Amino acid sequence: MGTSIVLAIFVTAVATYISRFLGVLSSEKIKETSKIFRWFNCLAYSTLAALIARMIVFPVGALSEVDYLIRFIVILLSILIFYFTRKNVVYPTVFSAIILTFLKGYF
Amino acid sequence: MINTKYFIKGFKSVKGIDSPAFALGASLIALGALFKNLGFSIQQSFFSTFFTYALPGQVVMAESMLVGASLLNIFIAVWLVNVRLYPMTVSLMPLLMHESQPRWKYYLFSHFIAVSAWIIMKSNYEKIEKQNRIDFWLGIGVATWSIAIISTLIGYFASDYLNNEMMVGLAIVNPIYFTCLMIGAMKALQVTFSIILGAILGPAFYFISPEWCILYGGFIAGTIGYFIGGKSGN
Question: Are A52 and B95 in contact (CB < 8 Å)?
Fold first, then answer.
């Protein structure tokens, strides 16, 4: 088991660094004023949004035990708090953990 | 070799009311606890965050090991979930590259590309002269990376004291934090369209392919966002 964990960590690190390495390699030929740079900027944001949405809608681990409805209520309330606190990210973040724990225990 | 003034400036930029330290720390505490429960040693938990430093990929590795996946399957699953780092790198590095800086810096310091550091850098790069941006980036990267490593260790040691409710609470912090950051980044039309479409298409493609949904959804959403946003005058 010990050896397989070490190998899994190594494989994970390599699989992750490949994208970073290839990103730097590609960047050497891309100017920040070019259209392709702006396209990649869109891809970066859209891919992140896709990942975050997947983490919420189809979570793995502890969050998967929480009902869909509760998850969406927490997201919605957190976004509202984000706007009410003039786009401060700390308040909705802290609030989300508290309200989720409360709702999960209550329902 | 490293301009310490800009390194420290970057390092300090993770402080403040909008600091990612809380969300990043909470997520990695949960990861450290997960590693402990899966039978990782403290050294293995440390080196996982040290060498990978990409939470979703580390979670995928842990989940894959739980179901007895092969190393090849782990490699593919991690690559697919972390492939977002490629467009993130391409959309950041041209802003940092300067002829006066050696190339190795960009390849080595790209290790710090992760959502928290990336968003901080994207919000601050215009305030820094181009030749100093890579050292500023190093400061941000080392700060967020250190938070991640220390939090993993805290989670590992605290796992016996974290009940299920606390783990659930910690698990929601990261998606909420990034959701708020994404909404905050929606200023230009291209980016706004890309984020909204990505949030819809990512989960939508999950029904077709759970493994490839981030790549498919992100690629199509970003491309549509680029063209629609461009036609709308950005």
Answer: no
The whole-number average pLDDT for the span A77-96 is: 90
B42 interfaces chain A, CB cutoff of 8 Å? no
Q: Within an 8 Å CB–CB cutoff, is residue B117 touching chain A? A: no
End-to-end CA distance of chain B: 39
Q: Structure tokens of B62?
A: 């842990």
Helix A90-106 with A68-84: angle, nearest 10 deg = 150
Rounded to two decimals, the ipTM of the complex is 0.90
Q: Which pTM was predicted?
A: 0.90
**Residues 6 or more apart from A34 whose CB is under 8 A from it?**
none
CA distance A72 to A65: 14
Kindly give the parts of chain B with pLDDT less than 70. 17-18, 232-234
The domain ranges of chain A are 66-107
Neighbours of B19 (CB within 10 A): 19
- Identify the closest residue of chain B to A75 by CA–CA distance: B176
Calpha distance B54→A16 (Å, rounded) = 7
- Measured distance CA(B172)–CA(B159) in Å, rounded: 17
Closest Cα in chain B to A71: B172
Does the distance separating the beta carbons of B169 and A100 come in below 8 Å? yes
Selected for mutation to probe chain B from A47, A71, A94 (highest B CB count within 10 Å) is A47
Dist CA B96 CA A37 (whole Å)? 13
